[in-house]
Amino acid sequence: MNTILIADDETEIADLVALHLEKEGYGVIKASDGEEAIRVIQTQSLDLAILDIMMPKMDGYEVTRQIRERHHMLPIIFLSARTSDFDKITGLVIGADDYMTKPFNPMELIARVKAQLRRSKQFNQTTTNQLILEAGGLAIYPEQRTVALYGENIELTPKEFDILYLLASYPKKVFSAESIFQKVWGEAYYESQNTVMVHIRTLRKKLGDDKNKFIKTVWGVGYTFNA
């Protein structure tokens, strides 16, 4: 049975989400603030986390940052009253896998939970025993989901890793922003181009790729791994 953390200081919403998840056969652990969420993550085995942003003691952004320091694979869904594009992009860039705004349709949330759990399981299966990808001092280890540049580990968010691994798996092939979003996020989304652009920018910064040594922009088309 999959166990899911719900971290939200609005009791009614946490109870509603828990009710629907439990009907689907999931185990649920609830936390009412960010610090409690971190304690749960440190002591419990979880398969997915649903986080509010505006929580007392520690907001959802900081909770996500701390999760990603130790748990690169745990799917995270933000469920927030913040509706601006800036908030959505910020959440995705710091490491969330999905973002839903309140008010929300509980059945849509359940569908997104199932999609994230399915993707996590499928990715774990497909990366097992795959070859290390190396190019120009960059090494990508798909089984461990780690990246090293000239022997130094580079900390990437799950989505940044997925984008880099996708591009590096097909060197010289050009992927449009829309196709990257569809393959990495697993869905079509009208904001995909901007979201992918932000992730590519932060990925390049972490790789020190200011001259596009690894990820090349093909103007008007998309991105390619410049192996």
From TrEMBL:
Listed SUPFAM superfamilies: CheY-like
The record's listing under CDD domains reads:
REC_OmpR (cd17574), trans_reg_C (cd00383)
Residue list for modification 4-aspartylphosphate: 52
Q: Name one Pfam family in it.
A: Trans_reg_C
Q: Which InterPro entries match?
A: CheY-like_superfamily, OmpR/PhoB-type_DNA-bd, Sig_transdc_resp-reg_receiver, WalR-like, WH-like_DNA-bd_sf
Q: What is the protein's name according to its record?
A: DNA-binding response OmpR family regulator
- Gene3D superfamilies under this entry? 3.40.50.2300, 6.10.250.690, Winged helix-like DNA-binding domain superfamily/Winged helix DNA-binding domain (1.10.10.10)
Q: Which GO-annotated molecular functions does the record name?
A: DNA binding
Keywords, A to Z, come to: DNA-binding, Phosphoprotein, Transcription, Transcription regulation, Two-component regulatory system
Q: Residue span of the signal peptide, if any?
A: none
UniProt domain OmpR/PhoB-type: residue ranges: 130-227
